[in-house]
Amino acid sequence: MSNVLRSPRAAWLLAVAAVALLLLTTALTNPVSAHGATVNPGSRAYGCWERWGGDHMNPRMATEDPMCWQAWQANPAAMWNWNGQLREGVGGNHQAAVPNGQLCSGGRAEGGRYNALDTLGAWRTTPVPNSFQLKFFDQASHGADYLRVYATRQGVDTLTKPLAWSDLELVGQIGYTPASQWQREVDGVSIQIPVNAPGRTGRHIIFTVWQASHFDQSYYHCSDVQFGGGTTPPTTTPPTTTPPTTTPPTTTPPTTTPPTTNPPVTG
User: Fold this and answer.
1) pLDDT at 74 over 80
2) Strands (E), the chain
3) End-to-end distance of the chain based on CA atoms, in angstroms?
């Protein structure tokens, strides 16, 4: 070994390089979870992961949960990344960014990863009363510029009709809420949004828009529910999973309010 490599400065440089390489390797192999989703009533991707994440190769899924089965076959990463269904730079104009028929995939978010979530069919439902608390989980404690919750109007056939903005009515919302005001969980924070959707019975879709506070990132989630099913039980906090690895550039949070088809309903 040369005298240069035996010098204290050379040894220090080698140690720094080794630590940097270790940190880079760790970041690539264990990316930090950094997003969120509706967990009760669970979004389509979250529900499929919660029910089948530990047994997603089981052929029973094809008959017991066929909509989840087709989603797993189309792109398993959509379920593993249940917390990463986002669009960047929307600027609050959600209806322009997410076309009719693509609401449940977030306008084919993340290069089409979530396209199977738009598939029509009998997605498994969560029983809820007409007034309930929707639970949203934020794994990286981003907080919210706002959270808006919509429900399909009575009479909309969610089994055969692609979901459109005109099918929805605003039934709950909260404004700017920093993560410090959310409920602390083991792997993040959560918040409850009061939902009031009177006059509805049977199968419906709950559509949630989360405008995160750290970047101009908008998240879109469809949850399938059955109104008239009693109270919604609390869910356990979802454990850490692997989110999308792309880190968005810092942008200014939107200041404009996206248009809605109806005035907000007080929860």
Assistant:
1) yes
2) 36-40, 86-88, 126-128, 131-138, 144-152, 168-174, 183-185, 188-196, 202-212, 217-227
3) 73
